[in-house]
Write a structure and sequence with these properties.
Layout (H helix, E strand, L loop, with lengths): L26 H26 L4 H64 L1
Length: 121
C-alpha cells in the first residue's frame, strides 16, 4: 500500500486546518447581502432606464429581470473575491499574533533560566 500524501492545510497534530469562505462566520451573510443588493440595484436601474426609454412594460420588466440575474452573479463574484482577501489577511494576523506569543514565551523562559543560573552557581 502506498502512503497518502499529507493534505494541504493539515497541522502538525494531524487535524485539518481548513480555511474557506463557506466556513467563515461573517462571510456567508455578507456575500448573501451583497448578492441581493447588487441584483436589486441592477433590476431597479434597468427597469427605470427602460421605462424612461419608452420600452414597452413587459419588455422592460424582462430586461430588468435579466439585469438582476447578471447583477446577482457580479455581486457574488466581487463579494467572494473580497472575502477571500479578508480571510487571507485575518489568517496572517492570527499567525503573527501566535508567533509573537511564542517569542514572548521563549524570552520569559530564557529570562527565568538566566535568573536561575546565578543562584545555582
Amino acid at each position: 500500500m502506498s502512503k497518502k500524501k499529507d493534505k494541504k492545510g493539515e497541522s502538525s497534530d494531524g487535524t485539518a486546518a481548513v480555511v474557506s469562505v463557506a466556513n467563515h462566520p461573517r462571510a456567508k451573510g455578507s456575500i448573501r447581502r451583497a448578492r441581493a443588493r447588487t441584483a436589486l440595484f441592477a433590476f431597479m436601474v434597468v427597469l427605470f432606464l427602460s421605462y424612461k426609454g419608452g420600452v414597452p412594460g413587459q419588455e422592460a420588466v424582462m430586461r430588468a429581470v435579466i439585469a438582476g440575474l447578471v447583477g446577482n452573479l457580479i455581486g457574488w463574484g466581487c463579494a467572494l473575491a473580497l472575502w477571500r482577501q479578508i480571510i487571507v489577511q485575518e489568517g496572517r494576523v492570527i499567525e503573527e499574533a501566535r508567533r509573537e506569543r511564542a517569542r514572548a514565551r521563549a524570552e520569559e523562559l530564557a529570562a527565568a533560566a538566566a535568573a536561575e543560573a546565578p543562584a545555582v552557581a
